[in-house]
Amino acid sequence: MLGNKLFKQLQQFDPELCKVLKFSLDRQLSTLSLIPTDNAASPLSQYLKGSALGNDFIGHNALEHYSRIEQLAVERACKLFKAEHAILRLGNPVAASRVVLLALAKTGDKILSFNLRKSEHCTGEQMKYNFVNFAVEPHNLKLNYDKVRYLALKHKPRLIIFSPTNYPHNINYQKMRDIADEVGAILWVDLGQNAGLTAAGLIPSAVPYSDVSTFSGSDGLHGPQSGIILCRKNLADLLEKTVIETGHASLKKNVMAALAITFHEVSCPEFQEYAQAVMDNAKALEKGLQKAGIETIWANTENHLVLAKLPENINVDSAVAKLEQAGLLVKAETLMTSDASISYPILRLSSLDPTTRGLFEEDIFTVGLTLGEFLKSRQDSAAINSVAKVVKEIIEGLPLFAEDWLPAEEIIKERDADLIMKTMIYGM
User: What's the predicted TM-score (pTM) here?
Assistant: First the structure.
């Protein structure tokens, strides 16, 4: 096979780089990630990204000159999310965020943002905005729409930004739309890792209510790393112009093709089943943590996200490092509230990647229980070994992308089962 030949050639020609490749694959196969941004791309998407289309790129001397591949991807994105316009030429979510800010805000503008999201992407004299925070209330950790309205009326922001990064429940986007309209603000919703559940119709969509929506083609959608902007038609020309002016004038056709097939896969019944399994697994993960005595923020999650409140006096960095040593990857964050003096250390967990690998409720409940027991323990060598044993038993032999989630007509026959692995390693 060509893949085997290329891999052997790589081993001989560049053993150092080959060692890095093998290490990365071994790490992914031998660990279980609950980090929301970790998720394997589908083999079909990876195949196209590694195809001969990578030798060509899409030029943009004029905005109207779309290639057929880009046109196909844009049409599919708009249909999938019921959007008026889509921009797919950006390499990552940070680039997409900077384009939106540069296009729609001016130096000195006020921006009302949930947890100050997007302020981290503002660099340089041109991006000096006045960010105003809104967050959950400290007494119940819920979003108070009346408080959001009060802040909007007080500050008259140019933009209102909401991102569900640390919010495991559904949002009333109509209320957010009403607030934005009342103060004449542009409403921008960053869908983040909720993009897949949104596309599957399992959680409310922000797209009909927001002026701009952004997300990545990876994590929740199983596509290539990219930055996607959906917007209303009245903002399309301005955003497209800013894309060109900020240097995003072309994109490799392989990435655009990978996006096109990603949107096609998401429209299939298998992705619908995957998305439902993600939500079921998130509930199971949450129940496992609660069984171990760990409090979760806003119990009964309504998406892929589970926020575990950490026990008092815990060394967060040490706990995360020890869990990684045991093969369980987690992300620690600080949950902000509307009171700047009150915040909570949390683990921001997701069921996305475990579901992609083929885990279901019983196993993910065990993962939550094991994680919770570790957090409540002395976190000594015995506790680390206990976690490592459970993780190994659960993930041993699992692929990075379970065949269950492939479109039915593309399911690989048993005699070609190694194609999935070769696609992941070589992009063949």
Answer: 0.92
